[in-house]
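testing teh design pipeline on a random one, pls ignore if ur not involved
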């Protein structure tokens, strides 16, 4: 895969799955904009790591809160001013705030919806406007198996990821004649900070339910995202790819 001369914005790219995606895309020759909100140190050291590994890579970091429309738009404008456009977007930033639904407040519900789903709407809408000008571009949204299966304590998270799945299809329809593809991926359990609160016993129970009996890796998500952005996926739009070891088919 080669993406030479193109750029990409990876939201939440400073750590976790986003950091893996940023590294993989830089390796394939994309100029990568690594977005972070709180993790400035992670983002800067990731940038240096990428530049050490791939001396020809082009990487920049950009701080903004994806839940703020104004921040997101300012960031997009900055990227366009610097690079003259945006070719690819990965809406990866996400949070959890788990609680059994009968104890969950509306603000706890809204917080997760805003960071995960509303941000994806804002990013996708702006990307479609920008990419349609060149009749070229692709967006990958990071969803979750939780959208398809539900999960106790995650009504906010499941709702946000369900919204991502349905908005991906809608954006794909609207982007199809404008040269812009939209797809999503739905990882199962991947070992990152997001699941660090899950203790080893619980992880073992979860593993026993996964047909492949193991967690997924960041690389397994990153390379799927790279494929979906690439021209090898040029006839794929509105699709969701499960990366879950077979727990949901
Ligand atoms: P993580 O390690 O907790 O990382 C979350 C990322 O999201 C961080 O880079 C964080 O950046 C960013 N982020 C959170 N709120 C943000 C905001 N308001 N503005 C900008 N960035 C923000 O989680 P992860 O496991 O890598 O998750 C990445 C994506 O994969 C998420 O969408 C998640 O739902 C999805 N996913 C994960 C799993 C899993 O098992 N790990 C499974 C399915 C789907 P800062 O630290 O800079 O704030």
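output:
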């Amino acid at each position: 895969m080669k993406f030479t001369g193109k750029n990409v914005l990876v939201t939440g790219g400073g750590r976790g799955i986003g950091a893996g995606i940023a590294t993989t895309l830089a390796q394939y020759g994309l100029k990568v904009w690594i977005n972070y909100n709180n993790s400035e140190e992670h983002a800067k050291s990731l940038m240096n790591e990428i530049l050490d590994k791939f001396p020809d890579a082009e990487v920049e970091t950009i701080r903004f809160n994806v839940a703020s429309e104004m921040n997101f738009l300012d960031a997009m404008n900055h990227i366009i001013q610097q690079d003259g456009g945006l070719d690819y977007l990965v809406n990866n930033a996400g949070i959890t705030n788990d609680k059994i639904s009968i104890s969950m407040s509306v603000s706890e519900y809204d917080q997760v919806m805003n960071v995960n789903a509303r941000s994806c709407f804002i990013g996708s809408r702006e990307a479609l406007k920008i990419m349609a000008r060149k009749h070229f571009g692709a967006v990958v949204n990071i969803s979750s198996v939780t959208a398809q299966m539900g999960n106790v304590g995650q009504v906010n998270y499941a709702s946000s990821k369900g919204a991502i799945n349905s908005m991906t299809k809608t954006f794909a329809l609207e982007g199809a004649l404008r040269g812009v593809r939209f797809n999503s991926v739905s990882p199962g359990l991947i070992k990152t900070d997001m699941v660090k609160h899950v203790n080893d016993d619980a992880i073992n129970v979860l593993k026993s339910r996964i047909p492949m009996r193991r967690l997924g890796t960041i690389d397994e998500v990153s390379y799927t995202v790279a494929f979906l952005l690439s021209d090898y996926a040029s006839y794929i739009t509105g699709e969701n790819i499960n990366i879950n070891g077979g727990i949901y088919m």
